[in-house]
């Protein structure tokens, strides 16, 4: 949720954040220039000139326009705030390098490398510090939004609990509920200020920032129209909280069909052709670089180890369910003895079919690396729901109602489910259901930064050792 930015928040939080960001870039720029000795006197003179700081300023303005920082607006902030700050810094540096190289026709690599790494790290530390300051301010009772609840159904009660979670760090002050029913559902510690019609008198005498309404518009349309008008006239942000009981609890997307408002059960960012192109470009570039650099060395190592420990092919090929339910040949380094059960039975922790070298490959996830070939071919993506055996697709699609939704995007080498513990053998239907829920969450919340986070979490998981990797 993104509330309106008040003049005070703009002055005290957002503007200082942008100024501090820019000052860090300038400081690191001149420090990097000072410590980079390989620049010629002519190049140094050019970089110290008045034009270069202006180019850096223009690059920063372009970056914050493309990737706005909302430390104060996103009150329930998460890792995305800091990844966005890092991406913004990287975008600034990239634009700066592109423009300066084009204008001055110089590319001092050492300077840009020092500037890029230092600026990125300092920007992250800066935003961590700013976030801590904002949370401290909110815990002390300032920078808080005054909120009213009109109604008291399950959704509004849950919303109130979410706002008050975290000892006030989200910055919401729930003033109370106006309701004619469900009074017994109002949480302990929250006040019932009157019936729904009493809210108008309250608004005349009290300052309110946001109003959340759970009243049914089909039965109280006139009341809601009046409430919206009252909120608009007093500059109060109005939020409608519909009763979605019976529908899945997930992020939904509304649209208009003529004059009719319709709601989709899920928003799929990868339905956007530009986002598809971005993700495919990332897959081609990263998988291509890996296949021509690291993969040949890994292949030689695995080929020697596999040949010495078990007769048979180096690669294992298996039909798995991919994008839109279509089958494809998934590649892995063979980690088991050649057997007839590989298409039906999952690997277990003490599976007798595994070789000793194969067990090592599985525990280090090296066995998955040939799937970069699948990524380059377009059968898979680097990040996405893990592809399952066709046998399991047939079985679980009958047991889990939303199972096939996970095939709305390309399967991945790693995924949101895997980095959240849903990896390896699925012994029960509930375990598979949990995995599917994580996969659907990924589909609905996809972004390039989320993919970056999953990749980092995967690397950390592999380096730290994963008990489920067998």
TrEMBL record:
Q: Which GO terms describe its molecular function?
A: undecaprenyl-phosphate glucose phosphotransferase activity
Q: What is its main location?
A: membrane
Cellular compartments annotated = Membrane
**Domain Bacterial sugar transferase per the UniProt entry, residue ranges:** 279-463
What membrane topology was assigned to this protein in its record?
Answer: Multi-pass membrane protein
- On the tree of life, the source organism's domain of life is Bacteria
Q: Which GO terms describe its cellular component?
A: membrane
EC number from the UniProt entry: 2.7.8.31
Record's keyword annotation contains Transcription regulation = no
The record's section on Pfam families has: Bac_transf (PF02397), CoA_binding_3 (PF13727)
For this UniProt record, give its keywords in alphabetical order, as a comma-separated list.
Membrane, Transferase, Transmembrane, Transmembrane helix
Q: Where are the transmembrane segments?
A: 12-33, 45-69, 81-104, 110-130, 284-308
UniProt family annotation: Belongs to the bacterial sugar transferase family.
Q: What is this protein called?
A: Undecaprenyl-phosphate glucose phosphotransferase
């Amino acid at each position: 949720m993104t509330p309106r930015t008040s003049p005070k928040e703009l002055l005290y939080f957002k503007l200082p954040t942008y100024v501090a960001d820019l000052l860090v870039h300038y400081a690191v720029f001149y420090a990097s220039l000072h410590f980079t000795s390989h620049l010629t006197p002519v190049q140094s003179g050019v970089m110290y000139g008045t034009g270069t700081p202006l180019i850096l300023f223009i690059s920063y303005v372009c970056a914050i326009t493309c990737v706005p920082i909302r430390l104060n607006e996103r009150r329930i902030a998460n890792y995305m705030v800091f990844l966005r700050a890092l991406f913004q810094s990287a975008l600034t540096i990239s634009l700066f390098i592109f423009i300066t190289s084009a204008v001055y026709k110089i590319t001092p690599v050492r300077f840009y490398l020092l500037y890029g790494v230092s600026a990125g790290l300092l920007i992250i530390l800066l935003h961590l510090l700013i976030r801590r300051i904002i949370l401290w301010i909110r815990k002390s009772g300032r920078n808080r939004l005054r909120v009213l609840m009109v109604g008291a159904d399950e959704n509004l009660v849950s919303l109130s609990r979410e706002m008050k979670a975290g000892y006030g760090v989200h910055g919401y002050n729930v003033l109370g509920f106006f309701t004619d029913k469900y009074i017994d559902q109002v949480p302990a510690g929250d006040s019932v200020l009157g019936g729904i019609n009493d809210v108008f008198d309250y608004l005349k005498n009290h300052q309110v920032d946001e109003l959340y309404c759970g009243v049914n518009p089909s039965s109280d349309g006139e009341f809601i129209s009046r409430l919206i008008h009252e909120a608009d006239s007093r500059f109060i942000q109005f939020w409608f909280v519909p009763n979605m009981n019976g529908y899945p609890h997930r992020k939904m997307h509304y649209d208009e069909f003529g004059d009719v408002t319709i709601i989709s059960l899920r928003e799929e960012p990868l339905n956007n052709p530009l986002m598809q192109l971005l993700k495919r470009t990332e897959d081609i570039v990263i998988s291509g670089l890996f296949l021509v650099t690291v993969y040949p060395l890994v292949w030689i190592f695995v080929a020697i180890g596999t040949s010495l420990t078990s007769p048979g092919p180096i690669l294992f090929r298996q039909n798995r369910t991919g994008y839109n339910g279509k089958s494809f040949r998934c590649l892995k380094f063979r980690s088991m003895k050649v057997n007839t059960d590989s298409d039906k039975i999952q690997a277990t922790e003490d599976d007798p079919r595994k070789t000793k070298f194969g067990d090592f490959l599985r525990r280090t996830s090296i066995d998955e690396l040939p799937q970069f070939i699948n990524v380059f071919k377009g059968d898979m993506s680097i990040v996405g729901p893990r592809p399952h055996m066709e046998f399991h697709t047939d079985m679980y699609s009958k047991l889990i109602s939303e199972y096939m939704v996970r095939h709305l995007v390309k399967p991945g080498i790693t995924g949101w489910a895997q980095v959240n513990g849903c990896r390896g053998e699925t012994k029960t239907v509930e375990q598979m259901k949990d995995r599917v829920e994580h996969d659907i969450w990924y589909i609905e919340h996809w972004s390039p930064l989320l993919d970056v986070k999953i990749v980092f979490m995967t690397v950390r998981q592999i380096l730290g050792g994963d008990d489920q990797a067998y």
